[in-house]
Amino acid sequence: MQKRYDIADEKFIQFEILDYEIDFTPQKEKAFSGDEILIAYAGNLKEEYVDDVANLPQSHNIKYEFFGKEGRWINRICREDIIYKGYLPPTQLASYISKYSHFGIFLYNKNFTQYLRTGSTSKFSAYMVAGLPVLCPSRYSYISYLIKKYKVGLTFNSFNDIPRLLHNLSEEDYRKLRRNCIELGEKIKNGYFFKKAVKKAIEILYE
């Protein structure tokens, strides 16, 4: 499209984070003791869309819960710490993971890596609106950039790093991450980033 209409690069506006508008406000505080850590994955669960489920590291106090359609294949992995919870509508999902989960995780198929180097996802926005800090492979460079910029989660090079990262995380550090998520989630829910992009586009149009 850009080449067809000969549109210069400077005419494009980066839409930093996708909107995710639902009627939900997370509770302000949630305990994090490390005794039992629940990690959520929410999204399309077709096998060709999700990678590394069976390779998630095992630890005595970490469990993984998967939410979405077409995820029954996860039961075939036969691990007590990996649980398929079925599909929940967006508001119910936000309510559940906000209350019970401690982190959201990214497990996209490697074919999506190129996109994740340049753009945000609705999954990231959904986690933020729920006030849920995230765990993300470093190879998803744009999501990792957002995590570091807004201090809303942890990045890792190998999935085997996850237990160490979580076991070394203090309750106060977790509270800070979660507060940042709630603050960013409010902006996402209220369309802040869309409005910002539109405003910039209008400014460029009338330059």
What do these coordinates show?
The protein is α/β, with parallel strands linked by helices and 207 residues long. It has one domain: Glycogen Phosphorylase B (Rossmann fold). The chain is 33% helix and 14% strand. The chain has 6 helices and 6 strands, in the order βββαβαβαβααα. The chain has helices spanning 90-100, 122-129, 141-150, 162-167, 171-189, 192-205; strands at residues 37-42, 62-67, 82-86, 103-105, 134-137, 153-156. The protein has a 6-stranded parallel beta sheet. Helix 2 links the parallel strand 4 and strand 5 (134-137). Helix 2 (122-129) crosses helix 5. The protein is globular and about 60 Å long. It starts with 36 loop residues before the first strand and ends with a helix. The model has no long low-confidence stretch (mean pLDDT 89).
> Which fold does the CATH topology refer to?
Rossmann fold
CATH superfamily: Glycogen Phosphorylase B
In total, how many domains does the architecture comprise?
A: 1
Mean pLDDT: 89
Task: Note poorly predicted spans.
Answer: none
Identify the CATH architecture: 3-Layer(aba) Sandwich
Q: Structural class, please?
A: alpha/beta
Spatial strand arrangement across the major sheet: 3-2-1-4-5-6
Task: Give the radius of gyration.
Answer: 18 Å
Q: What is the strand tally?
A: 6
User: Kindly, what is the distance between the CA atoms of the first and last residues, rounded to a whole number of angstroms?
Assistant: 23 Å
The largest sheet, given as strand count, sense and whether it forms a barrel, is: 6 strands, parallel
- Overall 3D shape: globular
- Written as H for each helix and E for each strand, in order along the chain, the element string is EEEHEHEHEHHH
Q: How many H/I helices?
A: 6
Helix content: 25-40%
